[in-house]
Design brief:
Layout lengths: L2 E6 L7 H9 L4 E4 L8 E5 L2 E5 L12 E4 L4 E2 L1 H14 L5 E5 L3 E2 L2 H13 L12 H10 L5 H4 L2 H21 L7 H15 L3 E2 L1 H10 L4 E4 L25 H4 L10 E7 L2 E3 L12 H9 L12 E3 L1 E2 H11 L3 E5 L9 E10 L2 E3 L6 H4 L3 E8 L16 H14 L3 E5 L7 E3 L8
Parallel strand pairs: 1-10, 1-11, 2-5, 2-10, 5-7, 6-8, 7-9, 11-15, 14-16, 15-19
Antiparallel strand pairs: 3-4, 12-13, 16-17, 16-18, 19-20
Bound molecules: inosinic acid.
Length: 429
């Protein structure tokens, strides 16, 4: 069963887009399972840069079916802009299909996202302001409008009327302007007309592909520690980025997953608020931010940067039952004399090797580090593990030993070719 989940092993932005593009060339179907246009997946190939937020990055391969799964929330306008941009950049792309069970993001979700952040005062999450949390709230509250309803004009009209009446009462409560039904319906009906041909029961398509032995890649968004249940709550997103989310958000069961690759940077980054024990607020942090261009694809915010944290990766390996790791952005660390890796935490006078369940306890931990020799060579021309400097290989071996998880792939630059396949056997199982 050649099925593979690609999951972010840290707090998102691990360069999953590049990996989905590289492995997507070997897949028949690429299915994204969670999140919305809070994600930003960048693919650089053939001298062009593609930026995806909703469309699975695998769409760049003609012949691939690219599916927006049922676990996603979709901003129709954002999706249409993205589709237009992609088609303008590349004449031949894969076939896009959108799950009829995915939920629609409306402007009132974005308004409520901003109002809720304001209401949190000092405890702001630092969301991407895309209305993602409020859209998932509606899904859970059974107020959501799904893509399948959205593209049926009469049904959509009826549902929007019912939901908007409620949302307007909420907006009024916040003292915010309300939304006018006719204008909203007219605008969104236009988007629905264009998107209608893409909307189908994708669960059936995915199940059939898995059953017939096609290669199916499940594309994660965000990262493990932004997961609503397993992440650093409340500083999380509102969906399930962990590998288990691939089942919840695409219509398959756990036994349909063969391999899980956890993508991690050679260091750590985080966007938005929340604990980050290995954060570097010094010149090394700034060096990583500048060299790695660590600025958000969606919001443009500077990402918080820090050393690699193996407590985080060990927990990630367990939460996602990782088959292997994909270590990205090793090139960014070139030029740092001595690199540090956190191996455990000091917590209330003792030592722990896990993330405390309560985020306020997690905020109190102090990492202890192992220091390793750095490297200053440019790694971008390396194509085999043996091309890497000895100290870089030692760094990778240390990560493998400490996480008990083999390194399957190493990425040493943004381009498709700047990839070292260490254990191809771990990719499709
Ligand atoms: P939301 O997903 O917009 O509700 O934001 C919730 C938290 O998740 C914030 O800290 C965001 O910065 C973070 N977040 C959401 N999407 C991404 C992503 O794609 N990469 C990194 N952080 C993200």
């Amino acid at each position: 069963m050649p099925t593979l989940v690609i999951v972010g092993a840290q707090w998102g932005d691990e360069a999953k887009g590049k990996l989905v593009d590289v492995l997507g060339s070997q897949a028949d179907m690429v299915v994204r399972y969670a999140g919305g246009n809070n994600a930003g997946h960048t693919v650089i190939t053939g001298g062009k840069t593609y930026k995806f937020q909703l469309i699975p990055a695998g769409i760049l391969h003609p012949g691939t079916v690219a599916i927006i799964g049922s676990g996603m929330v979709v901003c129709p306008k954002g999706l249409l802009d993205e589709l237009e941009r992609t088609v303008a950049q590349k004449s031949e792309i894969g076939k896009l299909q959108i799950s009829s069970a995915a939920h629609v993001v409306f402007p009132y979700h974005r308004m409520l996202d901003a109002l809720e952040e304001e209401a949190r005062g000092e405890n702001k999450i630092g969301t991407t302001s895309r209305g993602i949390g409020p859209a998932y709230q509606d899904k859970v509250a059974r107020f959501g409008i799904r893509m399948g309803e959205f593209v049926q004009p009469e049904h959509f009209k009826h549902r929007l009327k019912e939901v908007l009446a409620y949302k307007n009462r909420l907006l009024q409560m916040f003292g915010s302007p309300t939304m006018e039904f006719d204008a909203l319906y007219e605008e969104y009906s236009g988007y629905a007309d264009t998107l209608r041909p893409y909307v189908v029961d994708t669960d059936g398509l995915v199940q059939a592909a898995v059953e017939t032995g096609l290669r199916v890649l499940f594309e994660g968004a965000q990262g493990t520690f932004l997961d609503l249940d397993s992440g650093t709550y409340p500083y999380v997103t509102s969906s399930h980025p962990v590998a288990g989310g691939a089942c919840l958000g695409t219509g398959i069961g756990p036994r349909a997953i063969q391999s899980v690759l956890g993508v991690c940077k050679a260091y750590t980054t985080r966007v938005g608020a929340g604990p980050f024990p290995t954060e570097l607020e010094d010149s090394i942090g700034q060096f990583i931010r500048d060299k790695g261009q660590e600025y958000g694809t969606v919001t443009g915010r500077g990402r918080r940067c820090g050393w690699l944290d193996l407590v985080v990766l060990r927990q990630s390996a367990r939460l996602n039952s990782l088959s292997g790791l994909v270590v990205t952005r090793l090139d960014v660390l070139s030029g740092i004399d001595r690199v540090k890796i956190a191996t455990g935490y000091d917590y209330e006078g003792g030592q722990i090797d896990h993330i405390p369940a309560n985020v306020w306890d997690f905020a109190k931990v102090k990492p202890h580090y192992e220091e390793l020799e750095g490297w200053d060579q440019n790694l971008r021309s390396c194509r085999k593990l043996s091309d890497l400097p000895a100290s870089t290989r030692q760094y990778l071996e240390f990560v493998e030993d400490q996480t008990n998880t083999p390194v399957a792939i190493v990425s040493i630059g943004p381009d498709r070719d700047e990839t070292i396949m260490v254990r191809p056997d771990l990719v499709w199982g």
